Amino acid sequence: MKPVGTDTTVGFIGIGVMGKSMASHLLEGGFSLNVYNRTKDKAKELIKRGAHWCDNPGKVASDSDVVITIVGYPSDVEQIYLGDDGILHHLSPGNIAVDMTTSSPQLAARIYHKAREKGVAVLDAPVSGGDIGAKEGKLSIMVGGDEDVFNAVMPIFSLMGKNIVYQGSAGSGQHCKMANQIAIASTMLGVCESIRYAEKAGLDPGTVLETIASGAAASWSLSNLGPRIINGNFEPGFYVKHFIKDMRIALESSEEIGLSAKGLALAKSMYEELAEQGGENFGTQALYKNYL
Amino acid sequence: MKPVGTDTTVGFIGIGVMGKSMASHLLEGGFSLNVYNRTKDKAKELIKRGAHWCDNPGKVASDSDVVITIVGYPSDVEQIYLGDDGILHHLSPGNIAVDMTTSSPQLAARIYHKAREKGVAVLDAPVSGGDIGAKEGKLSIMVGGDEDVFNAVMPIFSLMGKNIVYQGSAGSGQHCKMANQIAIASTMLGVCESIRYAEKAGLDPGTVLETIASGAAASWSLSNLGPRIINGNFEPGFYVKHFIKDMRIALESSEEIGLSAKGLALAKSMYEELAEQGGENFGTQALYKNYL
């Protein structure tokens, strides 16, 4: 494993809202950057700033020392890593791949083991903090895999995040992200029910929010999403459709490790209902709309 | 309505853990105090410090200008206010009664209207902040009833609390408290599921907690009760049995105002399960025990 330094070439696959900000910090940090995205247009600005375009993920892999991926669904991750022309075919011994997609912990472990057979190190390193955290380089990064690889990649992580924590063996980063999403899922039920209750009871929900948001009912969701709900603002900070994806992974993973996560199951089913009624592109606070 | 001043005699019914601290602040504040409690023993210290003992609630009512009640269940509130020898029979026009029990909003409105026929003003003013908030005089007090009465009683409230907010007409204080408990109920599902998930996934739950407790999953419950769960500490900050009482009121009230509070219903049923298995005297964090 080559130490990561400014002579390290980093590959970046997945230039979405998150990926674009994250890759941008790597350019600013002085790394030579290879990029690929399904829609080339989204990589234009990075290319203008010096990133090298690659026509496919395999090319990114063969031309880079460390490859970072942040894509959509576990199926995309599986395709990119393990597919017929997946990056595992193109990475060389000593290379490192880091999947920062929120994806399945079980898939992460599977990729880790496949890669290891080839002498390639893989970390799972999903993030939280959203587009603002990505833009400001203040993401939380939850990392699973080998600890020496985690340490080696730290110069790259530290350009993108602030709260960067090693969680354990392969898949542990994803598991930690799932624990995060599980905590949020039921909290959202409480926030939306509470505000709807206040309104239906004839109270002023803003006054109620001010009263309860600093005590034992306090939560990030109540303080940050509560006011948006009251103002009828359902614009996405975090998309309903993306949260549903995460909750599906979390519920599958819960079942796999033998946990009956009833709050999560309820939240997931209600968000799916919301999506079926056309709410998939709202922000997660739109769960409120389920409470008629 | 006589203005509340240091010549006001205050009656206090219900000298439990909360009531004792609250009444103590009123004594320190210079009020003349009449007290009654089902178990006289619990009032001993207050009596030693100058409070006058009354043999029944009616005596408290007839000897006081402002009567405060903080008892157990809505059935106790109903008995004390509307029972055959209830305080409404003993209060005089111009007197004020303040129920600080967490109780039914609908009952609060009923008592308000009965009292009004007699020229007696009633506020519903449940609190949050627990025994520590009561001891430190830092309770949140959520008040329903007439606003001029709320203003008149402020010198008394301000000795017991910090965050004292008028919520609207009779019952609104209770409704606000219910909104608070509804937000907490589902959040507790999320907190317990998240920690149990982390453990079952083989992660170090303390590390996970540190990682997620300051981001979008942040909540008072996660930060304050999460560490207790991890340390196997299920001692009561807030008793399971009291939370169940509150959730029953909240669910009944939700049904009454036409809200299907599914998260609340799930949390309530799980806490009831916990109580049936002998957990009623644990703290609310013991919900964790339901996740095997």
TrEMBL record, chains A, B:
Per the Swiss-Prot or TrEMBL record, the active site comprises: K177
Q: Which domain of life is it from?
A: Bacteria
Q: Which residues form the 6-phosphogluconate dehydrogenase NADP-binding domain?
A: 9-168
| Keywords, sorted A to Z | NAD, Oxidoreductase
MF GO annotations: NAD binding; NADP binding; oxidoreductase activity
Residue limits of the 3-hydroxyisobutyrate dehydrogenase-like NAD-binding domain?
A: 171-289
Q: Which PANTHER family match?
A: 3-HYDROXYISOBUTYRATE DEHYDROGENASE-LIKE 1, MITOCHONDRIAL-RELATED
Identification of the protein by name: 3-hydroxyisobutyrate dehydrogenase
Organism listed in the record: Desulforhopalus singaporensis
